[in-house]
Amino acid sequence: MKTLARSITACLPGLVLAAMAAAFSGAAFAGVRLDDSASPRALVQSPQMVSEYGYPLNQYVPGVPAAQRGIVDFGRIEYRLATAPYVGRSARIYFVIPPVVNALRSPQGLQVSWRSEGNFASGSGRPGDKVQVWSGVVRDAYMSEAIALRMEFALRELLPQAAKGISLECYFEIEVGL
After folding, report:
1. In terms of Cα–Cα distance, which of 40, 41, 72, 42 is closest to 54?
2. How far apart are CA 21 and CA 6, in angstroms?
3. Other C-beta atoms within 10 Å of 95: how many?
4. How far is CA 5 from the centre of its chain?
């Protein structure tokens, strides 16, 4: 019995270190929001909303069926991401769509898509999604990227305050590997 107790006691520091290493290695893979405060516009206000037929939502067009979907093209958005703490490390960068979007009753009818104008991947997602847009070794203190952002949504999900516009604050997260 004493031999078993000594064996367990002798292994205890190693087990504690192993548990700590596992905890810290998990933290290394957790997403961290990238600082984009150097970006020209991080919070993008929507331009005029149009229907899937291309006319303004508040405009009646004779002979055209009632619109079911609204579209907002935010245009080109430039991001400048602070990556200095990760230079020389292998990483993945994700485009994160917030789970809640103001002026929408439910985010379920929302689809966000983007077209990269640089090194990031183009893609699409829904509120709450985290979509990988880049992976590799971080080379510079800042990563600059431009994307063309588009939002398409079911009109039945609009709240009355949507007349003031819809704002969407997407952001980027980084996961650093070991």
Report:
1. 72
2. 24
3. 27
4. 51
Residue 153 and residue 141: Cα distance in Å, rounded?
Answer: 36
> How many residues are given for the chain?
178
**Can you give the pLDDT of all 178 residues of the chain as single tens digits?**
444 344 333 433 433 333 333 333 334 456 899 999 888 764 555 566 665 666 565 555 555 566 678 788 888 889 999 999 999 999 999 999 999 888 788 878 889 999 999 999 999 999 999 999 999 999 999 999 999 998 888 888 877 766 666 677 889 999 998 5
- Integer CA distances (angstroms), 2 to 15, 44, 67, 109, in order: 19, 68, 79, 65
Helices (H), 30-147: none
